[in-house]
Fold:
Amino acid sequence: MLLYIHGFNSSSLSDKSQVLKHWLESRNRAQEWLSPDLPNRPAEAIDLLAGLIESAPTPPKLIGSSLGGFYATHLVARFGLKAALINPAVHPALLLRPLAGTTQQYWHSDGSYQFTQAHLDELDALDQLAPANPENMLLMLENGDKTLDWRDATAYYRKSHQLVFQGGNHGFTHFHDVLDLIDRF
Structure:
């Protein structure tokens, strides 16, 4: 099973989630795709993901993008799973602090919500000074990402396996090209 964990304000309809779904379908493995729409509250998102992991027939491999990479890092520490991290957010409470008090729009629906200090507190509670089980993580970055600084991730995940691609963007243009590698990791 491949559990795709989407990023901030995204959903299972994200491009990478759908590429993964179609990639698995083309290999007669559609039943291995799992990509839940996460609640905007970090604690609720982690509870949902932990429940899916605990009820899975076999331990899933995680694929986390952006904030989903941060969540995957927490879940690797908690469950000892393997994870591919795509342009992951490092210390997202610090990154998202300027958004406190703002209305956030979801990417794939008309819904919105208020981003509050409670969201930041929950992110802080999940953060780690250094990732646990770094050997279980495959970090994949594109240095053309204008949303997150790729150098923060290379430093934070310095003991993890790393691939840094030239150019690209936060959406990670090489995703389809690395699916076989993620599958074998």
